[in-house]
Design a protein that fits this description.
It contains 20 helices and no strands. The protein has 397 residues and is an all-alpha fold. The longest helix is centred in the N-terminal third of the chain and has 30 residues.
Amino acid sequence: MRSYRELFRTPEYTPFFFSAAVQTAALTISGLSIATLVYRATDSPLLSAMSMFGPQLAQMLGATFLLSGADRLPPRATLAGMDLGFAACTALLALPGLPVGAVFGIVFLQGLIASLGGGVSGGLLNEILPKNGFVLGRSVFNMVFGLMQVGGFAMGGALLTLLSPRVCLLLAAALYALAALLVRFGLTARPPRTAGRPSVAATWRTNALLWSSRPRRLTFLGMWLPNGLVVGCESLYVSYDPGSAGTLFASAALGMFAADLTLGRFVPPALRTRLDVPLRLLLAAPYLFFVLRPTMPWAAVAVCVASVGFGASLVLQERLMSLTPDELAGHAFGLRSAGMLTMQGVSAALAGTIAQLTSPATAMTLMAVTSVVVTLTLAALARQYRWGFRGVSTEVG
């Protein structure tokens, strides 16, 4: 599958695509509205930031203990139920006089609900699309996610100048409800991909099974570590150049969009499979330039070029699906998301600490150097696995 026309003619892909776009718009509008509401109530930048990005911590917790549900629950009902849960929680956040503690409790609950989202959606996409269409379909999801984030934040910012945060939250709740309707009436009811009840024991058992294969371990680490370290560089845009941080974020989004478009639509599969290491090196290498403390527009050019390297994630996701049984696809996607979020948070904290002790430019350079070293180490381990110590191909788990 090489064309967008073929992709959108695939049964169920179009409603799935639009439901994801609507949900992303709701997520960005509600996140900005919650952060604004908390800041106005507390005058605390920390609490405001935590209200917006804190759900990631809950997602990691949910993915650690609840992820077995990604393959053991019927996907259509699960996705529609999650969207309705988001709608209800967002509507509750719009209640006047809600204590800040209650706001964080609801935000945490939203994060727990969302912890299944990446696994259920990724596994379902793997079912809807043929194997040769997975990268194209996933690249379109990545592109619309980025575009809807930009549009959602822009729309949310405009709405907040005209309306109160609570009214904006009600609008986001309505968008979540619309996403649930698109899922319910646009997708076919499917049975769970694997039998059994979701449980903590099943989650840990499947985590161990997925981690037991060395090729899958290296694939997971390739998606988590270099990516996360470079997100640590991105977390310093504001402190590096407060007046141009928006331009740097926009440049990063442009680079990612270009990578998704090119890899998904134009690069043949035989070449794409060989691009993961070059792309991961590209992801970090331009940040080495920051040792010279470049000014705009050179910094923006470096960021844009580097962000093309995020396309390595598409290559590695395709590899992960080829290494994972279909009945575990959702769980594998969820584990990928959990590890990625964890590494991004750890890297942001590490980069911030280094910047505090040195400078943002120095911290970005050191994070980039570490990412390059990690990529080369993982590549060497993968080569060693494929050929063994004496040039003999190995096939052990």
